[in-house]
Amino acid sequence: MGSLVNLEALVLRNNSLMGELHSSLKNCNNLIMLDVSENMLAGPIPSWVGENMQQLIILIMRGNHFSGKIPLHLCYLKRIQLLDLSKNKLSEEIPPCLNNFTALSEKMINRVETESRVYWYNSTYYEIYNLISYSYYSFHITWMWKGMEQDFRRPELTVLSIDLSCNNLIGEIPKEITYALGLVSLNLSRNNLSGEIPSDIGNLSLLESLDLSRNQLYGRIPSSLSQMDFLQNLDLSHNSLSGRIPLGRHMDTFDASCFEGNADLCGDQLNKSCAGYQTLVKPQKAEVHGEYCVFYEALYMSLGIGFFTGFWGLLGPLLLWQPWRMTYLRFLNRLIDYLFVVVEVNFAKRQR
Fold first, then answer.
1. Could you tell me if residue 19 is left (phi over 0), alpha (psi between -120 and 50 degrees) or otherwise beta?
2. 90, 169 in Cβ contact below 8 A?
């Protein structure tokens, strides 16, 4: 297969292929679609997939045994529109270079450019037979869409999606994901991701499906999430999120199953009042800050009173009342004489 240098679509899904991807495939640098899903392929994802296959629009490796980290070289795939690495054994962190996916950062698919790359005009046929002929391969994929497996034809003209679910990925969700303004579907569920949901997640205004369930995410649900007018499928369940579920727009259309498994979440969707969170959790920082202010105010006041009392209670009478001052000075003279004698005696003993 490595000698098929003009190959544009390689679909090997739903077989029993084992071993690693053969390195000869890196010669197929004209590939637009590579689908090796639902096999038993193992080993690391080769870096040459990103280095040599930069024409890829669709890369599907779902349902294999790929392990190791997601190679940084995948970020060379500037034209990628559908990336599916789900149901593998990938570990470590999600690369922060996701903003290199230029096609995903556009709010609209450039259909003219995409069609010009996928559907080509056969000029040789025209020269020989004086007839116009168009030749193309109609892409057909199976994709997890809004929680259900669905078939798509010509998905390169309709869907912009990233699916990294069902792996062992750790670390935070990189904020660079919020630059993929054209994303329609994002699935990072069933990993070991931690940290907070990026506050700018609302920038993904075209997102229709967001699944971050079954991770270890904590903190509040960003209020910007309520700005996603096209969001139809949302799953934040089984994390460690806390505070009030954001209000406004369509957020009240999501039921309790979207938020269950977060013990410290509250809101109408969970039939859980947020009164306690308003008085305790939300103003917590302000309360702690206020307590510290009161503490420091009392400390400074006590220092001032102590200084005033010490100065005027002891030093004041010594300075203003002569009999006390004379008595105090005599005491100091006697103390100095006594210490001088003690030092001389000890010194004489050491000389002996």
1. left
2. yes
- CA contacts within 13 A on the Cβ side of 91: 6
Two tokens at 62? Answer: 């779902």
pLDDT for residue 276: 57
Asked if residue 92 lies in contact with residue 67, where contact means CB atoms within 8 angstroms, the answer is no
What is the mean predicted confidence (pLDDT) over 187-212? 92
CATH topology of domain 9-280: 3.80.10
The predicted pLDDT at position 289 comes to 42
Which residues, including other chains, have CB under 8 Å from residue 4's CB and lie 6 or more apart?
28
Domain ranges of the chain: 9-280, 285-351
Mean pLDDT of the chain: 79
The span from the CA of 170 to the CA of 290, in Å, is 37
pLDDT above 80 for 227: yes
pTM: 0.70
Task: Specify which residues 43 forms β-bridges with.
Answer: 66
pLDDT tens-digit map of 234-267: 999 999 999 999 887 778 888 889 999 998 899 8
Length of the chain equals 352
**pLDDT value at 64 more than 90:** yes
Contact between 94 and 70 under an 8 Å Cβ cutoff? The reply is yes
* Among candidate residues 314, 173, 300, 294, the one with its CA nearest the CA of residue 236: 173
Long-range contacts of 134-137 (CB under 8 A, 24+ apart): 137/8, 137/9, 137/33
pLDDT tens digit string along 115-144? Answer: 556 655 444 444 454 444 455 556 666 666
Would you give the end-to-end CA distance of the chain in angstroms? 104
